[in-house]
Amino acid sequence: MITPMAEPPSTIRDMGHNDLAAVSDIERRSYEFPWSQGVFRDCLLAGYQSIVLIREERVAGYGILSVAAGEAHILNLCIEPEFRSHGYGERILDELLFRARAASVREIFLEVRPSNETALALYRKKGFHQVANRPAYYQANKGREDAAVLAKKLVIED
Question: Which CATH number fits domain 10-153: 3.30.460.10, 3.40.50.720, 1.10.10.10, 3.40.630.30?
Answer without folding.
Answer: 3.40.630.30
